[in-house]
């Protein structure tokens, strides 16, 4: 294949954040109207359903003229014969054996942590979808003669567990609980890539604010906004727990920055600097929607309905992203007011 080709491998590429990353990667190449600027870009997406992924990405880039739109395919040969940027959708890593090695890997795979009640079997799904997938990825990288320069592997702010009113920075000691244990094992699996000479950056990601590339609300706002629109929103429990967050645009910007900047290494908080208490978050959300935010959601009801998973809604971290800010990273949406207006206006 063309020596100028740049190759990025993504797991979790069909999800909320993954599709935004692919959009930024490829529209950055095609936005000037030329498909040759900076060399060809190949994004390989590891997914359980390659055919569905092809349909998804074909729709995502359907607004572009065919001369500059990426070729979306499951066929390595057709991609090799093309001169266009490409998205290769695969369900096995060995399908990449005949391609140039990826220069960067972005690992976002993981079942939705708030999608279902946390039964023992669901907890195992959450762990396996993160830890086993990461272990399999590292195992595959050990077989490659040429290895990527960098692995960006997701973690979550849940690494720190519930912290009450204690300020949380990157090196704050965690509170042991399920979220921490899962994230810690997830991070350790990714850090094994350092033994292969690969730089590893682990963003501990806060709940993400934003819309999908098709304009639909995603993340926790997808569930939170509808009751507020009907005037039924308000604080959760007593509203005093902290809610870290990050706008999807800033998260993508941070990940793409880390691909190029070697100073981004190891675990770092990926949250906006404007963490709010839940009651303040609810008030700001209501103001953005021009709706009241006075009806509390009782904690006992959440505990009854969601069991242990209710901790996602009733606990949090007063987090500050000191490490990334010390490296000069600038947030485009540093305040909650600005971020919510960008998403909801």
From TrEMBL:
<protein>
    <submittedName>
        <fullName>TIGR01777 family oxidoreductase</fullName>
    </submittedName>
</protein>
<dbReference type="InterPro" id="IPR036291">
    <property type="entry name" value="NAD(P)-bd_dom_sf"/>
</dbReference>
<dbReference type="InterPro" id="IPR001509">
    <property type="entry name" value="Epimerase_deHydtase"/>
</dbReference>
<comment type="similarity">
    <text>Belongs to the NAD(P)-dependent epimerase/dehydratase family. SDR39U1 subfamily.</text>
</comment>
<feature type="domain" description="DUF1731">
    <location>
        <begin position="297"/>
        <end position="342"/>
    </location>
</feature>
<dbReference type="Pfam" id="PF08338">
    <property type="entry name" value="DUF1731"/>
</dbReference>
<dbReference type="Pfam" id="PF01370">
    <property type="entry name" value="Epimerase"/>
</dbReference>
<feature type="domain" description="NAD-dependent epimerase/dehydratase">
    <location>
        <begin position="8"/>
        <end position="261"/>
    </location>
</feature>
<dbReference type="InterPro" id="IPR010099">
    <property type="entry name" value="SDR39U1"/>
</dbReference>
<dbReference type="InterPro" id="IPR013549">
    <property type="entry name" value="DUF1731"/>
</dbReference>
